[in-house]
Write a structure and sequence with these properties.
With 201 residues, the chain is of the alpha/beta class. The chain has helices at residues 2-18, 21-24, 35-49, 88-91, 113-122, 125-128, 135-144; strands at residues 27-28, 56-59, 94-95, 108-111, 147-150, 154-155, 161-171, 174-185, 188-191, 198-200. Strands 2, 4, 5, 6, 7, 8, 9 and 10 form an 8-stranded mixed beta sheet that branches. It has a two-stranded parallel sheet with strand order 1-3.
């Protein structure tokens, strides 16, 4: 009995070593954002912010860029054709704190993503509509408190191309996201208009 218990304990400990959440937890990047990274984040916010009339709550931290996630679109045929990303292994397990200078408009603010997520949950149209709030009011309130997040940025070896994902989350069935490929032309990062797909809920 004692031997069986010991064997079971060893098995549990061994399994927990392979399922330790800390092992897969993203690590804060040791280096600050580069000038190129700040410029790219700012460009993403300019492009997205131009489509919104209200303010934008921007996550103060990035999230890892996962090349294997179907939502990243990186496996789409035209997305990375001819581009070999140099730092994809590191950016798929890291994050950065965003500085205020990435913000591209007066209506944008950096927010704690965990705190904002609670607000998003409280304004989720899937919950507020069944409770009697009109569809229009529910959607408007959800959009006004939505959380906009951006991924880490992957570069090719020459730093001519860069890839970044974003998502706009306003509830369980409210949001959208996409991946953008940027190309540096005459010293300016511009949208390369690659087809990396996107998602909407």
């Amino acid at each position: 009995m004692r031997k069986a218990t010991l064997t079971l304990l060893v098995l549990v400990v061994s399994c927990s070593a392979f399922t330790n959440p800390r092992k897969n937890k993203p690590l804060k990047a040791a280096t600050p954002l580069s000038v190129d990274e700040v410029a790219i984040y700012k460009s993403v916010l300019q492009q997205f912010g131009s489509r919104k009339s209200e303010g934008l709550h921007v996550s103060s931290t990035t999230y890892p860029l996962n090349p294997d996630s179907p939502m990243s679109g990186l496996k789409a045929h035209d997305c990375l054709q001819g581009i070999d990303l140099e730092n994809i292994a590191s950016v798929s397990h890291s994050f950065h704190d965003l500085p205020p200078d990435v913000l591209a408009g007066n209506g944008m603010t950096l927010v704690d993503p965990k705190k904002q997520a609670k607000i998003v949950h409280s304004n989720d149209p899937s919950d507020t509509i069944p409770k009697g709030k009109s569809v229009q009011d529910s959607v408007d309130d959800a959009f006004s408190t939505a959380l906009f997040s951006m991924s880490e940025i992957a570069f090719d070896k020459e730093h001519q191309f860069a890839v970044v994902s974003y998502h706009f989350w306003c509830g369980s069935l409210c949001g959208n996201g996409s991946t953008i490929v940027f190309e540096k032309i005459n010293g300016v990062w511009q949208n390369a208009n690659r087809n990396c797909g996107g998602w909407i809920s």
